[in-house]
Amino acid sequence: IEYAKKNNVDYKVINKIRYPNSLYDEYEKTLDYYKPDLILLAGFMKKIPNNVINKFKNKIMNIHPSLLPKYGGKGFYGMKVHEAVINSKDKITGATIHFINNEYDRGPIIKQKEILVDFKNDNAISLSKKVLRLEYELYLEIVKLYCNDKIYIENEKVVINE
């Protein structure tokens, strides 16, 4: 919000406090008003309504702190993901960018990036910091490709022309 104010970027805060009885309606009205070409989710912990997903099919991206389908789905977010990776002794983890669909973390995968887990030194906290850096890099890369018309869907699969 501070960035938007400083840079004269229009914004709207939609939450349960401001819209206790019409939260999902407000999402839809706002998106209909702005007609975005791309919607980016990052740490968004609510289920997007199906009508919004259908209206903006393959235009809503999400980032997830694991190599989906591993450690994805309802209940797998933030530290819970990294704790699961450490507890399972996986040697590799990473980040996934995907389009969303009507199921948690099951939309078409756009791209994944891997990193090694260092079991001598990593714990869930240190691993989360490493994955977060990776997420920033990967999301910026994918958004740039999308904005340059390098990403499209063919037969329900994501194709990237780099």
Q: What features would you describe in this structure?
A:
The chain has 162 residues and is an alpha+beta fold. Helices cover 36% and strands 20% of the residues. The protein is built from five helices and six strands, in the order H-H-E-H-E-H-E-E-H-E-E. Strands 1-2-3-4 form a four-stranded mixed sheet, with helices on one face. Strands 5-6 form a two-stranded antiparallel ribbon. Helix 4 packs across helix 5. It is globular, with a radius of gyration of 17 Å. It starts with a helix and ends with a strand. The mean pLDDT is 94.
- Read across the widest sheet, the strand sequence of neighbours is 1-2-3-4
User: What is the percentage of strand-forming residues?
Assistant: 15-25%
Number of helices: 5
Helix content: 25-40%
Contiguous uncertain segments of 5+ residues: none
Terminal Cα span:
33 Å
List keywords for this structure.
36% helix, two-stranded antiparallel ribbon, 5 helices, alpha+beta, 162 residues
Topology (elements, then pairings):
Blueprint: H1 2-6, H2 23-34, E1 39-41, H3 50-55, E2 60-64, H4 78-88, E3 92-99, E4 109-116, H5 124-147, E5 151-154, E6 157-160
Parallel strand pairs: 1-2
Antiparallel strand pairs: 2-3, 3-4, 5-6
Helix pairs in contact: 4-5
